[in-house]
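Is S-adenosylmethionine placement plausible here? Inputs below.
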Amino acid sequence: MNQLQLFLPCAAGVEALLATEVQRVTGITGKAWRAGVQLQGSWRDALQLNLHSRLAQRVLIELAHNQYRSEQDLYNAAASVAWEIWFTPKQTFKVEITAQHSPLTSLNFAALKIKDAIADRFREKFDVRPDVDTRWPDVRVYVHLTTETVTIYIDTSGEPLFKRGWREDKGDAPLKETLAAAMIAASGWDVLCQDGVPLYDPCCGSGTIAIEAAQIACNIAPGINRRFAFQKYLPFQPHVWDGLLDQAGASITEPTAAVFGSDVSFRMVDFAERNAERAGVADAVQFRGGDALQRMPPAPSGVMLVNPPYGERIDVAGVAGVSAAEGAQRRSQFQGQSIDEFGQPLAQDDAQREPRRDRNANPAREQAVTESGEEASDFFPQLAAHWKKNYAGWTAHVLTPDLKLPGKMRLKESRRVPMWNGPIECRLFRFDMVAGSARSKPARDA
Ligand SMILES: C[S@@+](CC[C@H](N)C(=O)[O-])C[C@H]1O[C@@H](n2cnc3c(N)ncnc32)[C@H](O)[C@@H]1O
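Reply from A.M.:
I modeled the complex. Tokens:
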């Protein structure tokens, strides 16, 4: 178990960041491939990576890598793996297959052959076949086919690693925790927070970015609250795992930097607060309701990380998710105050601006506005103007699929990092806010 070939898949664009993380967690230099990092490590490294990686989707152990031409070759490759050192025939399993330019006509049939090979091997050794469970298997086997090679892995993670175990309240379009962590790593805040640099997400939704950030600031391991597939495998030794958990628990600190989040929807703010509670960072992050176009900076300088709404109505001073009466009451409270809930004064022009309607008050109108895109197209120039005027000294990182966003904001990005939000190609644009204007440093894809 000391010389395992490990592979950690990740979102495309995140490979180099993941390789750095692997080095930090294990001390091992991995090799970044497209959409993953490969390394030689021990079983203990596999456990540590499950516990500490914020960027990997899962931790796989490679068990076979062979040439193939037919389904029978796949059967032979899978039958030669010593599955019995990993699990017993009483446990259930599932085979997942992916392919790039495979000459085989049916991937389903290929997966079936591999499943048969695993089951036959157990029957020959123990006279019992393990059952397949496609929904909640104890063991996941991953198979990757290229034109000529088959690679077979056993998964040690189980549920994908973006499931940290704290999210119950999702909101409408939550970011995956792994992508939020990639934004934080790409912005460099994971290092800056050691010097106390604050982080603020003014469109925080269910709080994913702020909660990830607060866990980083408190050195809380992302996997500390969840279970993993490896806990059911034969090599698993509870005392080793308990030792790693104790070590991770003992490393938790007071936050090294302040973290703030706000959202125009009070419903989202409630979600974010409940999620933060479950993630163990209720005291390390401050969430507030409020319009990103009005909120003043919660600190003199810092890093903003934003996953703004796309293709949905952007509601100025809206109060989504509350009854009309409660909404009206909150709107009047919100307008009446000149100090915001982070203790900062509201921008004067902004405080005087007429708030628009509760975004849930008239769905038909919302639909019309969404389709025309009229209101949404106002939002980004207004946001940029608000930042130029009030956020000098801050650096903003905005994740968007809209490659023309800097032009729409009339800001020049100082950096752009390609990132994938699932199947959607995005950029993380960095804007260095300078009073009254934007720094005009042209950028290339990082
Ligand atoms: C794409 S979602 C962000 C999701 C978030 N990253 C998460 O993981 O849950 C965009 C968020 O922007 C909020 N929003 C829309 N217009 C806003 C405004 N004017 N000011 C502040 N937040 C706004 C929406 O309520 C929504 O929660």
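Short version: The chain has two domains: 4-155, 177-218+255-438.
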